[in-house]
Amino acid sequence: MAALGIKEKLRELERVQKRLGTARPRKPVHTDLNSLLGGEERDGCFVVERRHEVHESYGPVRLADFLGLSSAALGIVAKDAQLLGFAPQQALFIDTETTGLAGGTGTLAFLVGLGYFENDTFVVRQYFLRGPQEEAAMLMAVQRHVQQCHGLVTFNGKSFDLPLLVTRSILNRQRPFFDALPHIDVLHAARRMWKQRWQDCSLGNLEHRVLGKTREIDVPGALIPTLYFDFLRTGNTQQLPEILAHNRQDIVTTAALLTYLGALVQSPFKQQASSHELRQIGKLYREAGEWESSAQLLQALLADHAHEQNPEDYLALGFCHKSRRHFEEAVQVWRHMIENLPFHPLPFIELAKHLEHRGRAHHEAHELTQRALAQLQKLQPAHAFLVYQEDLQRRITRLQRKLNGEDPSL
Predict the structure, then answer these.
(1) Could you say which DSSP state residue 222 is in?
(2) 129 and 249: one domain?
(3) Which domain holds residue 261?
(4) Where does a domain end: 210, 233, 266?
(5) % of the chain surpassing 70 pLDDT
């Protein structure tokens, strides 16, 4: 039998498909996206834009409050010194909807939402891919926004959104600018503030618990890739408005959460921060080297919650005083803990170090160290405090040598 040519092969394929009843993909028939989504085409992209009034309340904050935050407060929230000098009105909020959660070169960001302040409004501009062929134009438009801002804000963007946009830009032979700017990832900041209180720090849970908002109608994020593929395959636009609404709400919620976090750090008592939040804010101050602010906050916390007698609060205050070289105040804290609070080895160790090296009170330092070691030996074998046992034993040995005149540095 002679070999079939291309025309004969195509005819045979068509005959077999008809005989087997093989269904061909139906050509997408898009309804008018302009009227459905309220958007328009700009520079080869499909763009949807909504404006939000910044003075309306969003839970305990208004979006306008974000503009009153200092760059120092935002730097402490984000644990990023690069944010000093950052202008909040020049922030760009980014959130993407993608064809999958795995990332990598096979994942496409088919919707990129950008939030930014403009006059008295918070604008959410969304770039939607009507097809993969529009990706290069969309990425170029997004990067123009990035180049005009002072810093980026995302929710889990450090791990997902921005690496994906960088990858897609490179694949489209574009130079990505996302890594050149300060970046606040609100998920990381939220975990630092609330992870000990709530195990679930997802955006939806924080929206409910912190901002007091519950979305009445919201498309599940896990279904969004499937719905987009359905749109590409069949032209089904039924749930596209819900996908864009989901993305838009995520951006506004991220902005409101960062506003609340910044306000907590900048004015914790004005925001009526809980005792848990005050502890976390004090820790953020210490990690930023703001020892005086941390000490003032802890002193107020201890005064207002004296009944709690939380050893961690006193320890933190003692270390603040020590770091500021306010040794007498630190000694008062450590003595209070030793005499009035449940046993903890650290105030014994810190006071003994002070007495040995600054007070030259070797007898008292030796006695304190022995007291602490005796307390440790009463604990159960698996107790966490036993990690201090070796330190105390070394300290006792050294102090004993000094008391016996064996140490030339005495």
Answers:
(1) G
(2) yes
(3) 33-266
(4) 266
(5) 90
Cα Rg of the chain (Å, integer): 30
Q: What is the pLDDT of residues 295-340, one digit of tens each?
A: 999 999 998 877 778 899 999 999 999 999 999 999 999 999 999 9
Query: Within 10 Å of residue 334's Cβ, how many Cβ atoms?
Result: 26
Express each pLDDT in 28-37 by its tens digit.
445 588 889 9
- Give the residue among 194, 30, 37 at the shortest CA–CA distance from 127: 37
Q: Report pTM.
A: 0.84
Same structural domain for residues 303 and 234?
no
User: For residue 126, what are the β-bridge partners?
Assistant: 48, 113
Instruction: Decide if 175 contacts 206 (C-beta within 8 A).
Output: no
| DSSP structure string for 88-105 | GGGEEEEEEEES-SS-ST
**DSSP state letter for 2:** P
Q: For residue 297, is it within any domain?
A: yes
Residues 302 and 362 in one domain: yes
User: Which pairing describes strands 91-98 and 151-154: parallel, antiparallel, or unpaired?
Assistant: parallel
What pLDDT does residue 77 have?
A: 95
Question: Using an 8 Å Cβ cutoff, are 150 and 80 in contact?
Answer: no
Maximum C-alpha span of the chain: 110
What pLDDT is stored for residue 222 in this prediction?
86
| Mean pLDDT (the chain, rounded) | 89
Same domain, 74 and 222: yes
Q: Check whether residue 239 and residue 286 sit in a common domain.
A: no
Domain boundary at 248, 266, 284, which?
A: 266
Judgement on whether residues 281 and 261 belong to the same structural domain of the protein: no
Does one domain contain both 287 and 241?
no
- Residue 290 has φ and ψ, to the nearest 5°, of -90, 70
What's the DSSP call for residue 341? S
Do 223 and 358 lie in one domain? The reply is no
* Coil, strand or helix at 109: strand
Q: Quote the DSSP letter at residue 110.
A: E
Is pLDDT of 191 > 90? yes
Q: In this model, does residue 5 exceed pLDDT 90? A: no
